[in-house]
Design goal:
heterodimer, A: 113 residues, mainly beta, 11 strands, 0% helix, globular, B: 111 residues, six-stranded mixed sheet, five-stranded antiparallel sheet
Amino acid sequence: EAQVTQNPRYLITVTGKKLTVTCSQNMNHEYMSWYRQDPGLGLRQIYYSMNVEVTDKGDVPEGYKVSRKEKRNFPLILESPSPNQTSLYFCASSGAGPYNEQFFGPGTRLTVL
Amino acid sequence: KQEVTQIPAALSVPEGENLVLNCSFTDSAIYNLQWFRQDPGKGLTSLLLIQSSQREQTSGRLNASLDKSSGRSTLYIAASQPGDSATYLCAVGSNFNKFYFGSGTKLNVKP
């Protein structure tokens, strides 16, 4: 089954404790992206990647890191999480080009205390 | 920076009614536009994708149109059903591979 998977689905952590949210897709997609969704603000793009070793900032990259060492994986790293990073996070992937729709993972609900 | 607005924020209709959801964007230099539905506690499900060179796309009871010059897209849902109740999001792809989402329209279809 074609899908985007994220782990963990739920995470409660404390300020300053490094964490990684994994994202994997099995569709051989070139493009992958991370978003956060907050009430009243909608989804905002954090980082995206056009292919292996090619990443770029979205609209809200501060406090986040990403890497793309393999085509299928695109982990999101929070080196020193803060409470304002409490949010619902989504990973998405698509083929390259404007005719390719984005497919989304199920989301990771992160709470930073 | 691209700004995407969806109106109305919420909509309640009786079952069987045809309805239109609106999405407007400020920069007409777009890559594509995609409509999604989001159910509570779930991820996003893609409904329709319109490339910048297209005017509309159809899938079943759904029809999405795009007017780049006026910065507008509409999602038309025919013969609405209670199962259509969800939040509908539009996402605009820019020419620099970034995507911008509206805040969504929460639709409630009453039996």
